[in-house]
From TrEMBL:
<dbReference type="InterPro" id="IPR052507">
    <property type="entry name" value="BPI_fold-antibacterial"/>
</dbReference>
<dbReference type="InterPro" id="IPR017943">
    <property type="entry name" value="Bactericidal_perm-incr_a/b_dom"/>
</dbReference>
<keyword id="KW-0732">Signal</keyword>
<keyword id="KW-1015">Disulfide bond</keyword>
<dbReference type="GO" id="GO:0070062">
    <property type="term" value="C:extracellular exosome"/>
</dbReference>
<feature type="signal peptide">
    <location>
        <begin position="1"/>
        <end position="19"/>
    </location>
</feature>
<dbReference type="InterPro" id="IPR017942">
    <property type="entry name" value="Lipid-bd_serum_glycop_N"/>
</dbReference>
<protein>
    <submittedName>
        <fullName>Short palate, lung and nasal epithelium carcinoma-associated protein 2B</fullName>
    </submittedName>
</protein>
<dbReference type="GO" id="GO:0001530">
    <property type="term" value="F:lipopolysaccharide binding"/>
</dbReference>
<feature type="domain" description="Lipid-binding serum glycoprotein N-terminal">
    <location>
        <begin position="44"/>
        <end position="216"/>
    </location>
</feature>
<keyword id="KW-0964">Secreted</keyword>
<dbReference type="GO" id="GO:0030141">
    <property type="term" value="C:secretory granule"/>
</dbReference>
<dbReference type="Pfam" id="PF01273">
    <property type="entry name" value="LBP_BPI_CETP"/>
</dbReference>
<comment type="similarity">
    <text>Belongs to the BPI/LBP/Plunc superfamily. Plunc family.</text>
</comment>
Length: 240
């Protein structure tokens, strides 16, 4: 049950100064996050860079003739994004946990190009000053880009497209609200979570995604695209 003084404070904020709660808290959170992203989140947690390098090595190993357990790559991908969100949680107070990332997926669009997808799910808890935790959310967001091999030059080049970052594509579902039917408070929490996730996608996840793909050579990318074509061709007609 919400304590009486919290309800009194909340009603005051929502009555005469409703803009102050999201403006003060939201802007402060985003300022801290922007500063952290500009410094680089790996300055707050050095293991982010270590895991990222391991992920690059693991993805490159898919292009070798050696048999590598796919679970290892999935773990590195999940570890990386989990670590990034852990730093974000410390900077903002918006807790993003239980991160799940199935895998990085290549979907061939031609012999030399593919759509690349990293689906992410997580649990989000938003807190505000004086009020504490106000809402629990379920997060779904897909990192998407394209990769292709440019063959017009003597040495084939890997070309990575733009990583999409549309805040409206970030799905946030309310799981639990500690303020019942006070929709204004829930909306504040959802909007703040959306802005935080959007900033992280644009400032950290998409650049990492691009760097990961650009680290691969043309031969490796060609093999990954070819494997995705083979998988598509093997799927039963009704499952597509």
């Amino acid at each position: 049950m919400v304590q009486l003084w919290k309800l009194v404070l909340l009603c005051g904020l929502l009555a005469g100064t409703s803009a102050s709660l999201p403006d003060i808290r939201g802007n402060d959170v985003l300022r801290k996050l922007k500063s952290g992203l500009e410094r680089g989140l790996d300055t707050f947690d050095s293991t982010i860079e270590i895991i990222f390098q391991n992920l690059k090595t693991e993805l490159e190993s898919r292009c070798s003739d050696e048999v590598v357990e796919q679970q290892e790559t999935e773990n590195f991908l999940e570890q990386l994004i989990s670590r990034i969100f852990q730093v974000v949680s410390r900077l903002t107070g918006v807790r993003i946990r239980n991160v799940q990332v199935p895998d990085i997926t290549f979907e061939a669009t031609s012999e030399n190009s593919a759509n690349v997808l990293i689906p992410i799910t997580a649990d989000v808890t938003v807190s505000l000053p004086f009020l504490g935790e106000i809402v629990d959310l379920d997060l779904n967001v897909d990192l998407q880009t394209t990769v292709s091999i440019e063959t017009d030059t003597e040495d084939p080049q890997v070309v990575v497209g733009e990583c999409t970052n549309n805040p409206e594509s970030i799905s946030l579902t309310v799981l639990h609200s500690r303020f019942g039917l006070l929709n204004d408070v829930v909306d504040i929490g959802v909007n703040l979570a959306r802005r935080v996730v959007s900033s992280v996608v644009e400032g950290e996840l998409c650049p990492r995604f691009r760097e990961l793909l650009e680290s691969l050579d043309a031969e490796c990318v060609e093999k990954l695209i070819g494997e995705s074509q083979d998988t598509t061709q093997q799927e039963p007609e009704g499952s597509r």
